[in-house]
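Hey, quick one: can you model this chain's 3D structure?
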Amino acid sequence: MTREVQDISNASEIPGAAGSLAIEQAVVRQIHRFAQANDAHDHDALAAMFTQDGTFARPTAPGAPVCGREAIRAFFRDRPARRTRHVMANTVVDVLGASRARARSYVVLYSGERGETVLVGDFDDELHLEPDGVWRFVSRRGSLAFAE
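Sure thing. Here's the predicted structure for all 148 residues.
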């Protein structure tokens, strides 16, 4: 997949190298925390990772996003519990400004009692630095790399 070239029309908003690295680290950490909270069935932590009007689309249903923090909380709370491990890899973060970033990651999902079901996909994320200093997902859209 080809990524679009970063728009530098807001160059005055883009932090220097040290700031960009700190943003990249914070975004990658949030992506990893999402995977861990998902595996722990911590629906409150998952919902708190989104802006109030954030959207989430799981890789198996990319065309059916869940919209809004409370709807995301209910989505994760109400789905059946299952044993999973989400492994995030190859994350690339584009810093779009001091409070905006975009990321793309690969995900490998192992599920079942012995991890016998494996899905491979991607997540395309947009994040915003909120006034409380927390990077939150504005949009998190999953997709599968291989059809079932």
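One thing worth noting: The chain has a mean pLDDT of 91.
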